[in-house]
Amino acid sequence: MPGRLNLVKEITEGIKSFAGDNFIVSYRMGWGDSLDEDVKTARALESLGIDMLHISTGIPRDRKLELPAGFDYNDTVYTACYVKKHVNIPVIAVNGIKTLKRGNVLIENNCCDFVAYGRPFLADAEFVVRSLKNDEYKPCLECRNCRWYINGEKCPAQRKVKASL
């Protein structure tokens, strides 16, 4: 087991001893230098008692993968899908999924077990409610520099949603 996982082991053991096995411990795992390294890390985390993995970008942040033809998502989502094939615990995919329909495709094709949405919720707190009526609803306007992070009130998507109410 890589030395960098020693702290994870101590924390996981502490949580499990305090909360018991019925408490789900999820770990947000940033990718490494390669898919093989990601699988090794994921398997090590699984062996430590992690119950669920949430795959995200990591270091190196600028890693580029050659994605299979027809894969309509980014490197981060592909990494989650790849890791899922090699572990026996649930995997959460995140990053650029943007609509309920895109998330459903991943789940229906067993590419991941859960989908996490970030910016759609930042742009519109009612993202799920509106998506139930239109599974292609995409509130985030994908500004080059996300204005929500600077000041949520300056997010053009939020202003657009508020104006429609």
Describe the structure.
The chain has about 160 residues and is α/β, with parallel strands linked by helices. It contains eight helices and four strands; from the N terminus they run H-E-H-E-H-E-H-E-H-H-H-H. The protein has a four-stranded parallel sheet with strand order 1-2-3-4, covered by helices on one side. The longest helix is centred in the N-terminal third of the chain and has 14 residues. The protein is globular, with a radius of gyration of 18 Å.
Descriptors:
four-stranded parallel beta sheet
SSE topology:
Layout: H1 6-19, E1 26-30, H2 35-47, E2 52-56, H3 75-84, E3 91-94, H4 100-108, E4 114-116, H5 119-123, H6 127-133, H7 147-150, H8 156-164
Number of helices: 8
Oligomer: single chain
Listing every helix as H and every strand as E from the N terminus to the C terminus, the arrangement reads HEHEHEHEHHHH
Mean pLDDT: 90
Number of strands: 4
Task: Enumerate the strands of the largest sheet in spatial order, edge to edge or round the barrel.
Answer: 1-2-3-4
The radius of gyration computed from the alpha-carbon positions, rounded to a whole number of angstroms, is 18 Å
Structural class: alpha/beta
Range of strand content: 5-15%
Terminal residue distance: 53 Å
Query: Ranges with pLDDT <50 over ≥5 residues?
Result: none
The general outline is globular
Q: Main β-sheet: number of strands, strand sense, barrel status?
A: 4 strands, parallel
In which range does the helix fraction lie? 40-55%
